[in-house]
Please model this.
Amino acid sequence: MDTLWQYQFRIILLGDSTVGKSSLLKRFTDGIYSDVADPTVGVDFYARSIDIEPGVKIKLQLWDTAGQERFRSITTSYYRNSVGGLLVFDLTNRKTFDHVREWHREVSEHILPHHMVYILIGHKSDLSRDRKVTRDEAEQLAADLGIRYVETSAKCNSNVERAFELLTRDIYELMKMGEISTRDGWDGVKSGLTAKVLYPAEEEAEREKSCNC
Amino acid sequence: MPDVRMAAYVHSKGVSWEVKNDTLMPSDRLRQDRSESPTPGLVEGTEPGAGQEGAMFVHAQSFEDLTADSEPNTDNKSAEVDDAQEEALEEGDEEEHLESEQEEKGKEELKNSNKAKEEDVTSETWRSHRKHVFVLSEAGKPIYTRYGTEEALSSIMGVMMLLMSFVEDKKNIIRSIHADGYRVVFLRKTPLILVGVSRTSCSDRELTRELQYVYFQIVSLLTLTQLNHVFQHRQSYDLRRLLAGSEHLTDNLLRLLDRDPGLLLSAVMCLPLANSARDVVSSSLQAAKAKNLVFSILLAGNRLVTLVRKKDQFLHHMDLHLLFNLVGSSSSFREGEGWTPICLPKFNPAGFFHAHISYLEPASDLCLILVSTDREDFFNLSDCKKRFLERLRRRSAYQSLQEALNTPSYSLSQVGIPELRHFVYKSKSSGLYTSPDLPALYEGGEEQERLMGLYQHLHSCLHHPTRPLRCIYRCTDTENLYALVTSGFELYLCFSPLGTKSLAVSAVNRLLKWIRKEEDRLFILSPLTY
Model:
């Protein structure tokens, strides 16, 4: 098992179909822009590490979800095991912005009594001539929901890294303040390196896990 | 005479085995057992490409299993609907103008951005397609059209539903309409109605088979349970909400039906690969198993590398074709690891499996599909893939696979039969087929579809429900065709116009000999289970 990271955070991308969740995620994980023609089927899984402080490496496990209704039964099962969520809308498509509140409500209700750390993403910022949602109203929505707002473009590689970093940092700060902690049976946050040093019992549990498979 | 020649070939091959390599005695013995059969190559289970142990697939008759619901058409019935057709079309004309305006306003959101979708359904271009496919609900709601948009066609789909209901009110069933060079085929699969229109030489049966595939594609996305439930709950439900984003799957499936002989034959083609390398791949998949894993499938583009299955579980060809279609239609699996619910309708139409889908490397065509019964199994299967890859690398098999990918097919020149342009050979007991590259003559899409149409025609003659044939020879202006079916195999051959029937008959024996010689490479002879 990879023990070169201190913590592992599971993060999920949420939003309507075609807002560009997959392009955003591939820009972040592979550093390339791909004009994804086909819709995501079910969920797609990616991983990447990020250094948020000297000596603190966070491994991100990232779930890209299909926005279509028929996949709701599978995508909802991944809400519970995520600590962070990117709420993505398309700046050139008003309806996707109007649906953000629904996404936020659906996910938040699904994971009660626990909470997710969100960030609002206005995507496709390169298409400024086709813009349908002003920065002000997006920032107002973010303020209403009590979350950050970032405008991104996978095509121009604008703010992509920053969006994921901000979310990761927010989660890390909440963890340090004790508002988020690891829980048995929950995969949203896991300890890495420290597990071997501080929690021998967990190490034993991990050995059991590997035996099962 | 051909039988004697065939026996002679097999016998001499046996001799050469003995001379060349004594260590192969066990398989040689097996080969000799086969050659002792009174009609070698003809008896099911001994034909070239037959697996030595249990088959990987449900043993399906080429055609009947997929169209068991259909009944043979009679001229009487199609004659009856002529009047109904005229009457319904008049009503349709009246409705069309009014409804199209309403529909376009209300359903703007559901419009697809696909090019073929945006075709104007009143244009000559739309009318001149060789084939059309429509799917509607029993309430007449549009669900899918191959060309154009569903909302623009809602009144036409209403006419189709009306035609069906009208005939059924008279305690009858509408199967097809033939008129003016067109045939229109109707298929009711409650709660759906499927309609195929063709002005090719495709038979009613062939069109019905294609509609069956479309139906199963839809069931694969939703399960029959969910499909029935949504319409029981609300008869006028708009199924496009649940199918949103899947149109390209059905579009691609229809393209495959026009071009891939595997769907016609209920068979799949293997990546040519030395059987020693294939055995390593299979045993590596076998070793990388998990408790709830049912099938492990390695694909190379549209070729099967290997399939390992849980003991006593069999995969139907149609279900495998749906998996091929899902992978081949979706670029989203290329990076990352996909995890999706999928129904395998022939295996169990009522529930979902879950499939872990990933490429071995982003730039590779090798795609691994792990099918599990447990929806929470993602990380277990992700671990299985890692173990599989480690094992492949440790046993130096990965390199062999990559090399095999560089030659995913073979040229007809390897076979060396004069005037032979192409062939398709299916081993019945293994459910696998082999076919060389298309020669340059047939490389264009249209020519490929034309050749496939000719094979389809031969296929429907061989498998005619009331007058099946054992073999058929047909001459056209541009090629001569020969096809035969035995208890062990089906074979379709395309010759230049200079070929003769006697040449065709002798070519069969030579070809069977060649396939026997190459079967280790072209087929999976030792399937594994876990």
In short: Chain A has a mean pLDDT of 85. The first helix of chain A runs from residue 21 to 30. Chain A touches chain B at residues 17, 22, 26, 29-30, 36-46, 64, 66-71, 73-74, 77, 95, 212-213 (CB under 8 Å). Chain A has one domain: 7-210.
